[in-house]
Amino acid sequence: MQLDSSNQPIAYWKGLIHQYASFLPVTADTPVISLHEGNTPLIKLDRFVSAIGGDFDLYLKFEGLNPTASFKDRGMTMAITKAVEKGAEVVICASTGNTSASAAAYAARANLKCVVLLPDGNIAMGKLAQALMYGAQTIAIRGNFDQALDIVRQLGETGKVEIVNSINPFRIEGQKTASFEICDQLGRAPDYHFLPVGNAGNITAYWKGYREYEQAGRVKGLPHMCGYQAAGSAPIVDGHPITAPETLATAIRIGNPASWQGALDAMQQSSGWIDKVTDEAIVEAYKLVANTEGIFVEPACAAPLAGLIASVRANRIPAGSLITATMTGHGLKDPDRAISCAAQKPDLCDANLDSVSRLIGL
Ligand code: F0G
Asked: Is the Cβ atom of 331 under 6 angstroms away from ligand 1?
């Protein structure tokens, strides 16, 4: 086995900072904190597309296969690396769950103290388990994400803590690498890119990534950016902040996105759109992608899939288009929701061959 200068086998994927260093604000001396995030699969869906009556190629970028099972690891490897580089000792974030899981993991690896503020009662169980296991100080506030982020911003002003929410520009830098990977995997830019929108950092990051790759001559052309919010938490679509956002897709239960302007820029500059879908439509798409393709995502990811279904019905997508969609988090993050949404409960029976055979219909 051949080893490189850091004693890793040559063929190892060393993480996105290593892979895309020339596009990132790092130097040879930057102390990279990585869990080998990135390099997630781009999966072509055929059964799902025919089930929804589409006439296009659809690929899912399955970001649930990152080390903490969400796309946040892309931004977090950068944010924690830069926090270590500047000598920070405490990192903090507000979160609907995934950012806190990722921050807690990377902080553990970097030996930094991590504090996370979560909206009490509106966190998927897997995400809470992660923050606790990785050893973050976990604070559940009696309020929502927007209120938690407001407190975090004020704490950031003391200069004693490093904020690792996506208002930290290094988060956007890391997350933009997903666009690079998609272009590398497809050998071109897609025609449309669908993704969920919550605090709006990710749509901002993807658009930045696509533009930088095009400017660098790696691809020709840019996708239309198509973002989806949940109907009860759709400030960008409704045109004003929502004080009491609601949706079962708790990851995107956000009423006043920090990167609102970034999302508008992405939509306008790419001639795309930002739209909203109901919780019922989200659940329908959530189940459909699992049982037609074997891809289990968390409910927020189903928002753009529900949006795609609506776009097909509205004849919004030209035939033959190449579409990519980001599946931002893994379905196992939110097992309670999955069990409550599944059409089927386990069949219970006695422990003998006859009972089981009868249930199967043999
Ligand atoms: N999908 C998932 C699974 C998320 O966790 C988030 C955001 C989004 C989509 C929306 O991305 O905020 O960049 O527009 N989760 C944040 C968190 C808010 O705290 O984990 P965005």
From this structure: no
